[in-house]
């Protein structure tokens, strides 16, 4: 397998174990999003001798429940046993390791598991997870921003989801990254971006310069192979790996490569501010 993996919820010194030259820091809302959207680019960067860290924001275990009918339906689709999220973290280590990337897993649970003060499920349906964040979670953006500040190498290039498709966890990840004030490279959320997905009406398009990174055929193949390490998620989007590869190839070729938006930052957030 590729580079070393770290799964502590918060490790500000991970950069010391990989290349001191160039570090790419990918923010992944869930245990698959960065590889789904940017796996080929990660493969290219690692092949060039550069360090890559994939930090998953929503990688924590769910509470004891009871879980909503929607969450239980997802469990059945994912083929989950008693350690479903632990299995998904293992999938993520395998996928990122296959590309040569390191991993960091925060302990925030997926939106479908999060609850309010009275134990009410905040996102009990598919409609809810593709809507605006619950007002109860306004403070979550601030706390995530502080944690991201501590976890990110100070000289890293940071990649952030655009939140195409509007999933609440993608929106929260983007909002926290923007709160920090980094210069960001926004990626297009795959497969939503390949299937006509758009940004929510209340979320502006990332402002900056568009940059396209063409990939070789081998890098697209490596991308598909890494995604195949998420068996719990494949059936949600594709009937088989060949269909996945075809969609990746078409997504890449329509754009001439991986399209990113480079946005300049401002003064970075100071922890506790």
Structure description:
With 273 residues, the protein is an alpha/beta fold. It has one domain (14-263): 3-Layer(aba) Sandwich (Rossmann fold), CATH 3.40.50. 38% of the residues lie in helices and 13% in strands. The protein has helices spanning 33-47, 69-78, 84-99, 126-129, 138-151, 168-180, 217-227, 231-237, 241-255; strands at 23-28, 51-56, 102-105, 157-161, 184-187, 209-213, 258-263. It has a seven-stranded mixed beta sheet with strand order 3-2-1-4-5-7-6, sandwiched between helices. Helix 7 crosses helix 9 (241-255). The longest helix has 16 residues, at 84-99. 42% of the residues are buried.
Q: Nutshell version of this structure?
A:
The protein is α/β, with parallel strands linked by helices.
Count the E strands.
7
Describe the largest sheet: 7 strands, mixed
User: Assembly state here?
Assistant: single chain
Strand order of the largest sheet: 3-2-1-4-5-7-6
Distance between the ends: 40 Å
CATH homologous superfamily identity: LmbE-like
Tell the overall outline: globular
| The CATH top-level class label | Alpha Beta
Radius of gyration, CA atoms, in whole angstroms: 17 Å
In total, the number of domains comes to 1
Percent helix, as a range, is 25-40%
Count the helices. How many? 9
Share in β-strands = 5-15%
Question: Roughly what is the average pLDDT, rounded to an integer?
Answer: 89
């Amino acid at each position: 397998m590729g580079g070393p993996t770290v799964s502590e919820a918060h490790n500000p010194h991970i950069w010391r174990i990989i290349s001191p030259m160039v570090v790419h820091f990918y923010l992944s809302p869930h245990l698959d999003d960065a590889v789904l959207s940017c796996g080929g680019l990660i493969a290219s960067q690692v092949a060039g001798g550069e360090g890559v860290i994939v930090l998953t924001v929503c990688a924590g275990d769910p509470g004891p429940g009871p879980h909503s009918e929607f969450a239980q339906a997802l469990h059945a689709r994912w083929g989950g046993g008693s350690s479903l999220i632990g299995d998904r973290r293992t999938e993520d280590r395998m996928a990122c390791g296959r590309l040569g990337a390191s991993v960091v897993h925060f302990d925030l649970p997926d939106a479908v598991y999060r609850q309010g003060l009275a134990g009410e499920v905040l996102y009990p349906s598919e409609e809810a997870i593709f809507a605006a964040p619950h007002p109860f979670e306004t403070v979550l953006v601030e706390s995530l921003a502080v944690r991201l500040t501590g976890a990110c190498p100070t000289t890293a290039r940071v990649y952030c989801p655009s939140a195409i498709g509007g999933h609440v966890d993608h929106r929260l990840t983007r909002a926290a990254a923007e709160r920090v004030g980094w210069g960001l490279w926004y990626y297009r959320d795959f497969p939503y971006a390949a299937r006509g997905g758009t940004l929510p009406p209340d979320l502006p398009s990332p402002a900056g310069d568009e940059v396209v990174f063409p990939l070789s055929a081998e890098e697209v193949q490596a991308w598909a192979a890494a995604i195949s390490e998420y068996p719990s998620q494949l059936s949600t989007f594709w009937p088989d790996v060949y269909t996945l590869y075809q969609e990746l190839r078409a997504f890449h070729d329509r754009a001439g490569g991986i399209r990113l938006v480079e946005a300049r930052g401002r003064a970075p957030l100071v922890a506790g501010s």
